[in-house]
């Protein structure tokens, strides 16, 4: 049976929670594609992904599906993970403001744009898990899970904290981050970290689904 070992691990009641959860993943690149893979393999059938990009050769060091250079990420991943829902959409602040997040039990923010991440946090903090900076690092053992207000050593986290304080926003939400010092100045990346970010987010998502009253 396909999910037999998941059922053994979680138990029938909690596995049923996974099978009925509705998850939205914003961005399916180096982090988001691993979140998708992990949730899908763990028995979550109702997953919606949002992305606008096509695959480029430079994606091949870290992104699931990136062998299909030039193909839309949403279309490629729909082929690889039958049954998921896809939204081909460029995410910006206006889209976040107008989109209905209510039908989803969890929102996974693996988007790249800082302003978008801030607006998502304001709107969806109660059911949000956010990925922070995973590039420029290669030590997966440094990855941490915390409230946004407990983050440290991450420039993106600091910027988001400052912008939220400026907006007088003080609510908690979960983030996955790494305080590892940047190893390069440009967009260097290693799947050991980007993939581990995605798998860590998946683990946190499973815990939130199972522990939900």
Give me the secondary-structure topology:
Elements: H1 4-10, H2 12-20, E1 22-26, H3 32-41, E2 46-51, H4 73-80, E3 85-88, H5 93-98, E4 106-109, H6 114-124, E5 128-131, E6 144-147, H7 155-166, E7 174-177, H8 191-211
Parallel strand pairs: 1-2, 1-4, 2-3, 4-5, 5-7
Antiparallel strand pairs: 6-7
Helix pairs in contact: 1-2, 3-8, 6-7
Task: Describe the protein's architecture and organization.
By secondary structure, the protein is an alpha/beta fold. The chain has one domain: NAD(P)-binding Rossmann-like Domain (Rossmann fold, 3-Layer(aba) Sandwich). It is built from 8 helices and 7 strands, in the order ααβαβαβαβαββαβα. It has a 7-stranded mixed β-sheet with strand order 3-2-1-4-5-7-6, sandwiched between helices. It starts with a helix and ends with a helix.
Average pLDDT, rounded to a whole number, is: 96
Structural class: alpha/beta
Largest sheet: 7 strands, mixed
Low-confidence stretches: none
Proportion in helices: 25-40%
**Amino-to-carboxy terminus distance:** 28 Å
Number of alpha- plus pi-helical segments? 8
Q: From N to C, what is the helix and strand string?
A: HHEHEHEHEHEEHEH
**Global outline:** globular
